[in-house]
Give the backbone structure.
Amino acid sequence: MGENGKVRVVITNKQKEIKIPTGIRMLVRRCCNAVLTMENFKDSAEISVTFVNNSQIKELNTQYREIDAETDVLSFPMGENGVYDTDPETGCKILGDIVISLEKAAEQAELYNHSFQREVGYLTAHSCLHLLGYDHMTDLDKVHMREKEELVMDMLGLPSTSSYS
């Protein structure tokens, strides 16, 4: 296995609705690391993750995607076609921003009957793949992305409790 660069994950909490369980920040970091390891991303990388509530993510969704609805996670990739800007101070490639609604994550964890940890981990993995240029525009892409997300969940010991169809 090749040597990977360091992954710097900057986490900001901008919401008060959900008390952040111990270990969630570590989980998000491990998740980003697992995705970059799986994808053989060799350079040092920087990812920003922000925790928000439903009304904050709805605002961002309206502003950036013109979808006036709350969602669980938004990804703002900074790179294009595998080309990223480098932070001159750290030498890290700037992959982009992940915004997660912890309020929505809590709702979905309950809905899918799995842990809050698994939901946040899954959303992080999903979003991290977006930062690396994956999308799910076609059914094939969707399946491909889902497989990668589940692989990361297994790597982190958060296997699926229910099958998604």
User: Anything to note?
Assistant: The beta strands are 7-13, 45-52, 73-77, 93-101. The chain has five helices and four strands. The chain has one domain: 7-155. Residues 7-155 form a domain with the Collagenase (Catalytic Domain) fold (CATH 3.40.390.30).
